[in-house]
Amino acid sequence: MLIIAGKEYVAPEHRDAFVASYADLVRRARKAPGCLDVAVSADPIEAGRVNNFERWESEEHPAAWRAVAAAPTPATEVSDGDVMPYEISTSRPPLS
């Protein structure tokens, strides 16, 4: 399993437009082969922060998706961020 997760920062006054510009991409990604979950969302605490989360069955699935995804032009420029892929070998229910 592959998880791609992290945060990006945009101007606070453009954050909602930035998140909205990815709605169609998120909707389509969730239907892509191997996609277990995708989210691009506004952080409830930091005004300019956008949280990114993707969970895929394998590393090959997001690569195949990105080749055909037709990503949108973002509504604003990202000023900073830290989004990284994580290879996951095991998983379990939380708090168990």
Task: Give the arrangement of secondary structure elements.
Layout: E1 2-9, H1 15-20, H2 23-29, E2 35-42, E3 49-56, H3 60-68, E4 80-87
Number of domains: 1
- Strand order within the widest sheet? 2-3-1-4
- Which structural class do you get from the secondary structure elements? alpha+beta
Report the CATH architecture.
2-Layer Sandwich
The end-to-end span amounts to: 20 Å
N-to-C SSE string, H for helix and E for strand: EHHEEHE
Kindly report the CATH topology: Alpha-Beta Plaits
User: Number of helical runs?
Assistant: 3
pLDDT averaged over residues: 94
Query: What is the CATH class name?
Result: Alpha Beta
Rg calc: 14 Å
Q: Largest beta sheet, briefly?
A: 4 strands, antiparallel
The poorly predicted ranges are: none
Based on Cα principal axes, name the global outline: globular
**Helix content range of the residues, please?**
10-25%
According to DSSP, the number of beta strands is 4
Portion of residues in beta strands equals 25-35%
Molecular structure report:
With 96 residues, the protein is an alpha+beta fold. The chain is 23% helix and 33% strand. The chain is built from three helices and four strands; from the N terminus they run βααββαβ. The chain has a four-stranded antiparallel β-sheet with strand order 2-3-1-4. It starts with a strand and ends in a 9-residue tail after the last strand. The mean pLDDT is 94.
